[in-house]
# Entry
Amino acid sequence: MSSELVCLSMEGGAAATTPAALPYYVAFSQLLGLTLVAMTGAWLGLYRGGIAWESDLQFNAHPLCMVIGLIFLQGNALLVYRVFRNEAKRTTKVLHGLLHIFALVIALVGLVAVFDYHRKKGYADLYSLHSWCGILVFVLYFVQWLVGFSFFLFPGASFSLRSRYRPQHIFFGATIFLLSVGTALLGLKEALLFNLGGKYSAFEPEGVLANVLGLLLACFGGAVLYILTRADWKRPSQAEEQALSMDFKTLTEGDSPGSQ
Amino acid sequence: MSSELVCLSMEGGAAATTPAALPYYVAFSQLLGLTLVAMTGAWLGLYRGGIAWESDLQFNAHPLCMVIGLIFLQGNALLVYRVFRNEAKRTTKVLHGLLHIFALVIALVGLVAVFDYHRKKGYADLYSLHSWCGILVFVLYFVQWLVGFSFFLFPGASFSLRSRYRPQHIFFGATIFLLSVGTALLGLKEALLFNLGGKYSAFEPEGVLANVLGLLLACFGGAVLYILTRADWKRPSQAEEQALSMDFKTLTEGDSPGSQ
# Structure
């Protein structure tokens, strides 16, 4: 009920408001995300000997980097427009782009870790479904970033071009995030079956911990998706902001439209 | 451009129209879905000895039933309101419920197949991440069906209750479908690692076929999500239908609101 009232006041162009339940959902998503990162660290520390670059432990940098970059940071980059719904559009947009850059760089370190480890060990590359999905995610993520930057931050794209691209950008952003979650689940499963083998079915503590980690991954994906898709939590269109902020664009080309 | 025009004409309450691109996207999703089912059959037939209930081949009924029920039929049940956008709401609603029942029954056969196989072989149950996710999907799917039936088909829920539950029903429906796709990917990976072992990294034909199958699963999930979430493809609100059709409900309680 309260969120409906807030929605009405926003449509009327009233002062900045935040739907009553949104902060609780965001806090819950952050709790899930941080638990996820901590539990990945705990799994690698307790059962896989920890992390080091110049040894067999180099592999362990891969899951940790991927969970921090392509799950936690990517997820939070998607939530920026909901969390900072009353900040200037331009600030939010730059934060969105920056979080995605951090995610991309950390994921790149994770990729280098696994390819370098495979090379040193003489293992084959890119044969598994996890690796195929992973490469697909990485390429799509990079392309999405480049196209997003060209349309929304780099001066050049017209108002109408931005409006038409925006829904595609949002759909592909959410899809790439979900594919990242799926790829992480596949990687986790692979790591368990390679290392635990038959002991997995004996309910070994590592197996149970990793299963809980997998469920947490799925729950974090679900929580981000819920906050992102709830219609009355979308960033309100701020007409006055469109007139005032230029988002790096020239006056002649007009500015970016409405909410994202 | 054409879809925008269609959208405008719908808002103006004009005659039944279908967005120009929608049929092509639906056809593409069906092509993906049928290829998925055929390729699952081909994988089981070519590399796993086919399917039979009273033998070791009983296990193979599990992946086939799950792909037909919880992927292909569940995905298509979600698309019913887009594909039959100009049919009577009540007909579409019954079709949506029926497709979900078929999916549930086929998935149940698939569940019985794997538990029965495990029992005969003396294998442990419910230790893997795939099985945990699978049970979660099945329980959520059953609860979603029951709650959906009570709100939308069974007479009783008021107009305002239906309006408030509808967005939740849609979100959880899409989430359960995506979790089903993720669970299928985990199961496929499990089947590959259990059976292929070290040969997986030698690019065995079965491994490559199963990887392609995995990518197809992800693509089908993406295609269904795209058709479902595209704003201008949503079923138009039909005021006259609300007044005419009662959807099994009494006059005093009013009918279900707008589009789904």
Summary: Chain A has one domain: 25-231. Chain A touches chain B at residues 123-124, 127-130, 132-133, 136, 167, 171, 175, 178-179, 181-182, 185-186, 188-190, 192-194, 200-203, 207, 210-211, 214-215, 218, 222, 225-226, 229-231 (CB under 8 Å). Confidence is low (pLDDT under 50) at residues 1-14, 243-260 of chain A. Residues 159-196 of chain A form the longest helix (38 residues).
